[in-house]
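Onboarding guide, step 5: your first structure request.
Type a short instruction followed by the sequence, for example:

Predict the 3D structure of this protein.
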Amino acid sequence: MSAESVWWQHRGQPPTQPADPDPGQAGLDETFDTVVVGAGVTGLTTALALVRAGRSVLVVEARHPGAVTTGRTTGKVSALQGTTLSSLTSQHGSGGRRRLEAYVESSLAALDWVAAFCEETGVPAERRDAVTYAAAPEEVPTVRDEHEAAASLGLDVAWRGTPDLPVPAHAATVLADQLQLDPVALVLALLDQVRAGGGRLLTGRRVQRLRQRGEVVHVLGEDGLDVRGEHVVLATGTPVVDRRLHFARLTPQRSYLVAYRHPAPPEVMALSAGSPGRSWRGGEVDGDGLLLMGGEGHETGRGRRESTRVDRLRSWTAEHFPDAVELAAWSAQDYVSLDGLPLVGGLGSPTSRVSVATGYRKWGLTSGVAAGLALAGEQTGAPVPWARDLYTRAPRLRDLPAFLGVQAGVAAGEVGSLARGVRRPPSRAATEAGGCAALPVCTHLGGTLRWNDHEQTYDCPLHGSRFSADGEVLEGPATRSLARLPRRGGRHAGETT
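The system replies with structure tokens like these:
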């Protein structure tokens, strides 16, 4: 089965704009109002809101639009997000109530914006009930906590003591009229609208550093990339330029998805409350019924084999949906912050004109859209009403144990990676097909990489950077390819790409 998402699998070549070796020749020698780095849902929502406000915008993407997390999601936009609200309520306490109200407001605003955009542009989107359910009796109190937290924060949730679901369920909380869609269709429509509004796209260039000169920020990177903006938005999952050390405040999380053809796919978007979680929904692709099954999340580069996790999803699906026929299996990555809320706002001095957005805890189609609207509103002088309460927050002493836990996890990940070695790396013949083999040491902070046997990648257990088998960067915070081992009888060790 393909490790590409089902959303890309049935399409042709993704949209790109060939990179010119001299940006000036491509008409990019002007100073843009904003340079957006990253063409996922956050970057493109930001770009669209800015061009609609009359701003000049350049979007720079290392690969192609929707190449990373956005194009690999389950395609759900919802204010009910598993057990997120009860978890945040426990974490923030009564003193954080206004912050959590703002989080719900941001989710509802994103839902309304996506629904309106899909109707405007003809992107197929379906209204569905979002369901958080108890797969076992011991999970019922957890679902009850989520129901009460959601209701207290203003969501019109309904309690179901005997939910009618196609899998074992002992209780559920339900929020009607949420949204499911094909996330790549959303990306392509956003890109079309950005271009129609005069926005520009530059693909195939990886941003590696920033340099601020007065009121202008130079965006620098591969192949001599040097474009300029009065503002820069880093919408790259984890910031690829990170003077505030966001990577030390984030935990990279990978989760797995399997797509199936199914004659009668479910008509709800469901997420179990226990561990390991199961996330599933129905849909349609190429005229056939579609079943999406997700779960088996873990910290990137740590724990059991990735292929084992996918097999567990397959076994569970075969038990509960025996008519399902597999189409594709893949994984996606997102980040969880210390306090569980998105990190959105300025990067801080000396790059005061640079903003970042990350930490969506696997709800990027909702929180990523909200972040894009907020970042654009800040730049245009029309701030969204919930942004200040949600995104402006000082570090808290109570987050210190979580911070230390993240660092302990990083250390444990490195020790575990060293103890195991690079597990089942590609054969030398395979890696030498491109001329040389990759040295499995992360170019971000030198972590020992682990071989991902499901996606055939090198994954870093420290901060979540990922590399292809031939050493090219797939996900940051790393921005440089792996060093290369010598070819037999040829190249010197340490030679870089």
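Each response can be followed by summary notes, for example: Residues 127 and 179 are 5 Å apart (CA to CA).
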